[in-house]
Sequence to fold (643 residues):
Amino acid sequence: MLHPVEMSKVRIICMKVDAPSVIRALHNQSILHLKDFSFPETIRSGPLPLFDDISARTIKIKAIKEAICGTAARPQLRQEAAGKSCRAPRKKIPVDSPLRDADGIIADSEKFLSNISERDSLHKELDAILSAKRALDEVSKFDIDFSKLASDSLQFSLIKVGAGKEGAAKLGLAQIKGCAFTSVPGQGGSTIVLVATSKQWDAKQLEQFGQALPFPSIASTPAAEIGSLGRQEAAIREKISAVDKRIGRFIEANHAKVMAVDEALSIEADRAQAATMFGASASLYFMEGWVEKSRFNGLSAHLREKFGKKVFLTRAGIGHDELPPTKLDNPKIAAPFQFVVEFLSTTNYREIDPSIILAITIPLIYALIFGDAGYAILSFIMAFLMMKNSKPGSLLNEIATIWAVSAIPAFLFGLLFDEYFGFTHTRLLGLFGVASGPLYVGLHRVSLITTLMLISIIVGMAHLALGFILGAINDWGHSKKHAIAKLCWLGIEMSGFFLVSAYMFNAFTFMSLPALALFVLCAVGLFVTEGAISLFEIPSLASNIMSYIRIAAVGVGGVILAEAINELLLPRLELSPLGILVFIITAIIYVAFHAVACIIAMFEAFVHGTRLNVVEFFGKFYKGDGRKFVPFRPERVYSQEQV
Fold:
């Protein structure tokens, strides 16, 4: 739990002819993290020979899949296939042979793809007809055969005059020499004017009266042409409907199979490409990987049962500089804190996993800062709602989980500090008409700020001391020099505390000489292990400890804000219509301000608490830069492999 899962390095040797079956067995076992094999006597392998055949079929199947998904999204197919084609089926589809099944789908899909192409062409025709109808709608009230408006001496133009400008336009047109015009009502209060002028006159001048419209190239009146286009539209829509039904029937019958085969081909491609990590000789493949130590025997027994002596598996030695991948194994309660660790950097295989430690320190420091029992209850409700309304595993969901967990110690510290939405328990009971003496005396943070600062410093020292101890444990196995340096820093911290207490506050004076001796001894140890530059970093340790005073400062700021809301906005009821209205309004404002104050306190406590853990605490022992354990496994949503 405090260390990553112990790994074994394994080496597997098999005949090339057996490689597809061996890879499939390893893939389905889903416990081996493959690594690149490097050995002087071998060459780097390429993908399995089947890879090209798989890739060729994958391209075609993906094209069919995209056609199905895109088709199902069209409004015309909502009744037959919308939402079905790309959704996981209730039951996974068995796929016996991905290549053979892909060939069958490709053969059956020729008519489907032809229907897709036909429907696209029909939609283009329909769009052209609808565009022509929209253009004719503007001039549909002219009972004129536009094909007869042809003359050697006249030119005809159409202009659209905006609402309210008809009179001015007609007056202006009447002043043009040799101009004749007629008009009909247009859409939206506009007027459509048909103008005839001599061909020598510049028709662009008409744009001063309104918008020029394209002159329709039709063989009859607009109304007759619109009727003809309507009949063409109906015929094309009928054809589209027939094509859509044929497409819908194909999707209904094949969409699940297409998705399953596409997934199965992707899995087969991953298996074929896995061979690029192998070493190869003329007839053998050599592969290496990592498996959890506890599962090595199970893997060995499985391969022996399936392949007998055709496959050779053994443990391989781990090089001194070789770093196995990291798999963390923590209880469920530590999952969100493990998320924080992995969000920063994957834990190094050879160091302590701090997830379970953060499960204690983050809520503890959060609670010290937050420290209000009333707000703790409110924050738990907020966090719970965020958990329920966010995707599991997302950043928001993990932070909400940390908030919910941290609300529990925050409630307990709220009892200790005697804070309930900024009230003491005595005053809170008084608001509800319960008059009694104090049930207990709490540690009120505002009035005992010095004590709170001392508690913050002690917490900081304990936190950093734990970091130095963990750092020494991490380094002991591979660098005792660095481990001793961590212990020297721990000694500097402890002796510094007693020296400051004795010489500045006249406390623990009996420890002054032993503390001075320990300080000198540890300073010499730092000089020997980390060099003279480390001595100049000793003051930075004091600044690290002083950073924890933010626990007191931020916490007191939250208390003052809550108390200010109570002083300024606490609703007071007066039994009159106006008094009741004012009470309701101020109550709403009061609750809103407390909710905002609670949210601010949640963010501040989380941000500052996490900073103290990640910057001050982690800096003393955590290196990270590990590689996550990723077993070679298939991800199946649609397909099921037949064994």
